[in-house]
Amino acid sequence: MAEVTSPRARKRAGFSMIEMMFALVILAGGLLAMLTAQISAIKQGKYGRHTTEAAQVAQDQMEYLLRLPWAAAAAQPAAWTVPTAVSHAYQNEQGAVQQQVFNLSWRIQAAGFDPDVRLIDVNVTWNEPDAPAGAPARRYVLSSNKVNAG
Q1: H-helix segments, 3-137
Q2: What are the two backbone dihedrals, phi and then psi, of residue 144, each rounded to the nearest 5 degrees?
Q3: Mean pLDDT of the chain
Q4: Does residue 99 fall inside a structural domain?
Q5: 106 Cβ partners below 8 Å, 6+ apart?
Q6: How many domains does the chain have?
Q7: 108 φ, ψ to 5°?
Q8: Predicted model pTM
Q9: Residue 6 placed within a domain
Protein backbone atom coordinates (compact mmCIF):
# COMPACT_ATOMS: atom_id res chain seq x y z
CA MET A 1 0.00 0.00 0.00
CA ALA A 2 1.28 3.38 -0.96
CA GLU A 3 1.36 6.06 1.65
CA VAL A 4 -0.62 9.15 0.88
CA THR A 5 1.15 12.43 1.69
CA SER A 6 -0.67 15.63 2.09
CA PRO A 7 0.62 18.96 0.67
CA ARG A 8 1.22 20.09 4.23
CA ALA A 9 3.56 17.15 4.89
CA ARG A 10 5.50 17.86 1.68
CA LYS A 11 6.18 21.46 2.77
CA ARG A 12 7.74 20.27 6.01
CA ALA A 13 10.06 17.78 4.32
CA GLY A 14 13.03 20.13 3.61
CA PHE A 15 14.85 23.15 5.04
CA SER A 16 13.48 26.60 4.53
CA MET A 17 15.57 29.42 3.10
CA ILE A 18 15.64 31.18 6.49
CA GLU A 19 17.00 28.06 8.19
CA MET A 20 19.73 27.81 5.57
CA MET A 21 20.65 31.49 6.04
CA PHE A 22 20.92 31.02 9.81
CA ALA A 23 23.15 27.97 9.28
CA LEU A 24 25.41 29.93 6.93
CA VAL A 25 25.66 32.85 9.36
CA ILE A 26 26.68 30.47 12.16
CA LEU A 27 29.22 28.79 9.89
CA ALA A 28 30.66 32.17 8.79
CA GLY A 29 30.95 33.28 12.42
CA GLY A 30 32.84 30.10 13.31
CA LEU A 31 35.20 30.47 10.37
CA LEU A 32 35.87 34.11 11.27
CA ALA A 33 36.67 33.12 14.86
CA MET A 34 39.09 30.44 13.61
CA LEU A 35 40.79 32.94 11.31
CA THR A 36 41.22 35.44 14.14
CA ALA A 37 42.67 32.72 16.38
CA GLN A 38 45.11 31.66 13.65
CA ILE A 39 46.37 35.22 13.10
CA SER A 40 46.85 35.64 16.85
CA ALA A 41 48.72 32.32 17.07
CA ILE A 42 51.11 33.35 14.29
CA LYS A 43 51.83 36.67 16.00
CA GLN A 44 52.34 35.06 19.42
CA GLY A 45 54.58 32.42 17.84
CA LYS A 46 56.84 35.17 16.51
CA TYR A 47 56.96 36.85 19.93
CA GLY A 48 57.76 33.50 21.50
CA ARG A 49 60.58 32.89 19.02
CA HIS A 50 62.12 36.29 19.81
CA THR A 51 61.83 35.64 23.54
CA THR A 52 63.56 32.29 23.10
CA GLU A 53 66.37 33.94 21.12
CA ALA A 54 66.71 36.66 23.78
CA ALA A 55 66.93 33.96 26.46
CA GLN A 56 69.72 32.27 24.50
CA VAL A 57 71.64 35.55 24.17
CA ALA A 58 71.29 36.15 27.92
CA GLN A 59 72.29 32.57 28.78
CA ASP A 60 75.39 32.75 26.57
CA GLN A 61 76.52 35.98 28.26
CA MET A 62 75.77 34.61 31.72
CA GLU A 63 77.84 31.48 31.05
CA TYR A 64 80.72 33.63 29.81
CA LEU A 65 80.62 35.80 32.95
CA LEU A 66 80.36 32.80 35.28
CA ARG A 67 83.40 31.11 33.63
CA LEU A 68 85.64 34.16 34.12
CA PRO A 69 88.28 33.81 36.83
CA TRP A 70 87.36 35.59 40.07
CA ALA A 71 90.21 38.11 39.71
CA ALA A 72 89.58 38.90 36.02
CA ALA A 73 88.91 42.56 35.29
CA ALA A 74 85.64 41.74 33.50
CA ALA A 75 84.40 39.84 36.59
CA GLN A 76 84.78 42.78 38.97
CA PRO A 77 81.75 44.68 40.29
CA ALA A 78 80.65 47.37 37.86
CA ALA A 79 77.54 49.33 36.86
CA TRP A 80 75.40 48.40 33.87
CA THR A 81 77.47 48.12 30.71
CA VAL A 82 76.64 50.08 27.58
CA PRO A 83 74.18 47.97 25.56
CA THR A 84 75.79 45.89 22.84
CA ALA A 85 73.82 45.03 19.70
CA VAL A 86 73.50 41.31 18.99
CA SER A 87 71.85 40.38 15.69
CA HIS A 88 70.01 37.13 14.95
CA ALA A 89 68.60 36.06 11.59
CA TYR A 90 65.18 34.41 11.38
CA GLN A 91 62.75 33.43 8.66
CA ASN A 92 59.46 35.35 8.53
CA GLU A 93 56.04 33.99 7.49
CA GLN A 94 56.74 34.70 3.81
CA GLY A 95 60.03 32.76 3.94
CA ALA A 96 62.31 35.81 3.74
CA VAL A 97 65.28 36.02 6.12
CA GLN A 98 65.11 39.00 8.49
CA GLN A 99 67.42 40.31 11.20
CA GLN A 100 66.32 40.81 14.79
CA VAL A 101 68.58 43.04 16.88
CA PHE A 102 68.85 42.45 20.64
CA ASN A 103 70.51 44.94 23.00
CA LEU A 104 72.63 43.14 25.61
CA SER A 105 73.92 44.68 28.83
CA TRP A 106 75.00 43.31 32.21
CA ARG A 107 76.18 44.36 35.63
CA ILE A 108 78.13 42.69 38.40
CA GLN A 109 77.55 43.70 42.01
CA ALA A 110 79.27 42.75 45.22
CA ALA A 111 76.92 40.86 47.48
CA GLY A 112 76.68 42.74 50.76
CA PHE A 113 76.07 39.56 52.73
CA ASP A 114 79.26 37.72 51.63
CA PRO A 115 82.52 39.08 50.12
CA ASP A 116 82.97 35.82 48.17
CA VAL A 117 79.70 36.23 46.25
CA ARG A 118 78.93 38.52 43.32
CA LEU A 119 75.49 39.13 41.86
CA ILE A 120 75.27 39.08 38.07
CA ASP A 121 72.34 40.47 36.07
CA VAL A 122 72.07 40.16 32.28
CA ASN A 123 69.48 42.30 30.49
CA VAL A 124 68.33 41.77 26.88
CA THR A 125 65.90 44.20 25.23
CA TRP A 126 64.46 44.33 21.72
CA ASN A 127 61.71 45.92 19.67
CA GLU A 128 59.30 43.76 17.72
CA PRO A 129 59.38 44.69 14.00
CA ASP A 130 55.59 44.95 13.65
CA ALA A 131 54.84 46.45 17.07
CA PRO A 132 52.62 49.54 17.06
CA ALA A 133 54.35 52.91 17.26
CA GLY A 134 55.22 53.83 20.83
CA ALA A 135 55.10 50.22 22.08
CA PRO A 136 57.66 49.61 24.84
CA ALA A 137 60.69 47.46 24.14
CA ARG A 138 60.40 43.85 25.23
CA ARG A 139 62.80 42.68 27.93
CA TYR A 140 64.37 39.48 29.22
CA VAL A 141 66.43 39.52 32.44
CA LEU A 142 68.59 36.71 33.79
CA SER A 143 70.23 36.80 37.24
CA SER A 144 72.72 34.53 38.97
CA ASN A 145 75.40 34.43 41.68
CA LYS A 146 79.14 33.94 41.15
CA VAL A 147 80.93 32.36 44.10
CA ASN A 148 84.68 32.58 44.72
CA ALA A 149 85.74 28.95 44.71
CA GLY A 150 89.34 29.64 45.67
Answers
A1: 7-11, 17-67
A2: -160, 175
A3: 87
A4: yes
A5: 61, 65, 80, 81, 120, 121, 122, 123
A6: 1
A7: -125, 130
A8: 0.70
A9: no
